[in-house]
Design brief:
Layout: H1 6-24, E1 37-39, E2 48-50, E3 53-55, E4 61-63, E5 68-69, E6 78-79, H2 81-89, H3 92-110, H4 118-121, H5 123-132
Antiparallel strand pairs: 1-2, 3-4, 5-6
Helix pairs in contact: 1-2
Length: 139
């Protein structure tokens, strides 16, 4: 058996990331948790990690549900495995590698002789960048 080539490694990483992200996109009770954010709550001194938003009857959107639970003297803080596994897979080293890739893609696009086709040629990097920036993925 031969070692997997670069394309095989990239596809395997993409599949693992897709599996972990899919699992992390819902809470164990089925509540959507696909758009993570931090929010300040009156009962916590620090911002709290939330999994999505809940629309109230008056139309306001509030961050919900909390992904880190517990955290009192009687109950230590914990997180469901599906969310913890995803965070562990996409740790700060992945963020730094992703930033390097985005920089390389931006440079490649800047050097392109087809300036009018940057949206097309950079669509994957743009989709990632727009998600990170909190913008719509599709333009």
């Amino acid at each position: 058996m031969t070692d997997p080539g670069p394309a095989d490694q990239i596809r395997a990483a993409a599949q693992l990331l897709r599996t972990l992200a899919t699992a992390a996109s819902t809470d164990t009770d089925g509540t959507p948790t696909a758009h993570w954010t931090t929010a300040a709550f009156a009962d916590s001194r620090e911002p709290v990690l939330c999994g999505d938003y809940l629309t109230l009857d008056d139309g306001r959107r509030v961050p919900w549900p909390r992904l880190v639970r517990g955290g009192s003297p009687q109950r230590p803080a914990y997180m469901h495995v599906r969310h913890a596994d995803y965070i562990a897979a996409v740790d700060p080293t992945v963020g730094l590698a992703l930033a390097e890739w985005l920089d390389a893609e931006a440079t490649r696009l800047e050097l392109s002789i087809h300036l009018g086709r940057q949206e097309e040629y950079g669509r994957h990097a743009l989709a990632v960048a727009r998600q990170i920036l909190g913008e719509e993925a599709e333009r």
